[in-house]
Amino acid sequence: MTATKTFASQADLEEKQISFVQLSEHAWAYTAEGDPNTGIVIGDDAVLVADTQATPAMAADVIRRIREVTDKPIKYVVLTHYHAVRVLGASAYQPQQILASQDTYDLIVERGEQDKASEIGRFPRLFRNVETVPAGMTWPTITFSGKLTLWLGKLEVQLLQLGRGHTKGDTVVWLPKERTLLAGDLVEFDATPYAGDAYFKDWRKTLESVAALKPVALVPGRGPALIGEEQVAAGLKSTGAFIADVRASVEAGVAAGKDLNAVYKDTFAKLKPKYGHWVIFDHCMPFDVTRCYDEATQYADPLIWTADRDRQMWETLEG
Ligand SMILES: [Zn+2]
């Protein structure tokens, strides 16, 4: 035993069961019992992958599943946001293009290196065969602001920025004809939303914009694929409720003049009964409360997490 409690995630070593399910005519979900998901669109002449898995070795399993259903080339990789666990597998697909919002590109420039070091340190299990990750960053080759439409033959695929939430650059992939959405970490299901780089004040409004599309199938960032309006609504509702509950608790603590440590303890105790069964609850809460406290007090934009800042925060709140 060391004197300092290690990150909750560093003790999380259990391997997850993979599911690969078809959601609609052209969309598939690669899900992993609460570990990061990948969404796949198989068009007339090409395949698009949204979120790559954390390492090329892990992405190889996604490719193996894709090859069970199609031999079309994987031309496009979409980064729904900049987090290392979503982007570092990109090289395995050898895509013609890597697409991301300009905001995501800017975040990679600003904090990509620190995020890579911090995420690998926080959660080693999620970076299986991390030695297969190439040096440096995963750079988008096409960026956009607001909306970009791709045509995979006759299949229309929209990349949409519906607002800030999980990060400043959040992008969703939308198939308008089959009303299927690849949501990235903007929506989670039975999994705790990570909000360490989030915009709490915007997130719920962005979820309303997601709901306005009226999806009938949705791949969340974590958790099982949501099929049917009822399941989609449940995912949007529970994600929004969690964000609102963290925010209400943190803002009440700030209004009462409490410091971060006290606000964290209060918020953890308040939310544990309702959300404690969701995966990565213990892992996310310190980051989520810290970011929410920062936003409520003095930082409109998220501070950059570094391996050092992770450790200091963890010692302050959990030591
Ligand atoms: Zn993320």
Please describe what this structure looks like.
The protein is of the alpha/beta class and 319 residues long. It contains eight helices and 13 strands. The chain has helices at 56-69, 84-87, 102-122, 200-212, 229-255, 260-275, 281-297, 307-318, and strands spanning 19-22, 27-32, 35-42, 47-50, 74-78, 97-101, 142-144, 147-152, 155-160, 172-175, 180-184, 217-220, 226-227. Strands 1-2-3-4-5-6-7 form a seven-stranded mixed beta sheet. The protein has a six-stranded mixed beta sheet with strand order 8-9-10-11-12-13, covered by helices on one side. Helix 2 (84-87) links the parallel strand 5 (74-78) and strand 6. Helix 4 packs antiparallel against helix 5 and helix 6 (260-275) crosses helix 7. The longest helix has 27 residues, at 229-255. 50% of the residues are buried. Residues 1-5 have low confidence and may be disordered. Bound molecules: zinc ion. Residues 81, 83, 86, 166, 185, 194 line the site of zinc ion (ZN).
Please render the helix and strand layout as text.
Elements: E1 19-22, E2 27-32, E3 35-42, E4 47-50, H1 56-69, E5 74-78, H2 84-87, E6 97-101, H3 102-122, E7 142-144, E8 147-152, E9 155-160, E10 172-175, E11 180-184, H4 200-212, E12 217-220, E13 226-227, H5 229-255, H6 260-275, H7 281-297, H8 307-318
Parallel strand pairs: 4-5, 5-6, 6-7, 11-12
Antiparallel strand pairs: 1-2, 2-3, 3-4, 8-9, 9-10, 10-11, 12-13
Helix pairs in contact: 4-5, 5-6, 5-7, 6-7
Bound molecules: zinc ion.
